[in-house]
Fold:
Amino acid sequence: MGELRPWHVIIVVAVVVLLFGAKRLPDAARSLGRSMRILKAETRGMAEDDVAGKAEAQSGRQPLTAEPVDKPVEKPTVVDPVDRVQDK
Structure:
């Protein structure tokens, strides 16, 4: 039990042919191959982008400089909505 025998493969192939039909199998295989090619190209592109992004990040680093503060930031006054209604 657990071994894959040649007759197991034959039965699986026969079931697939019966389900999808012999006419659709080449189209399905072609679509699967195209999808695999696209996936491979995209993963390769992501890996190249990742390497380029790391190189840009390291070369683009600048030391932090202290910026002079011109004036203190004023906090906006918070008005309670209840007080606003009572004033009117």
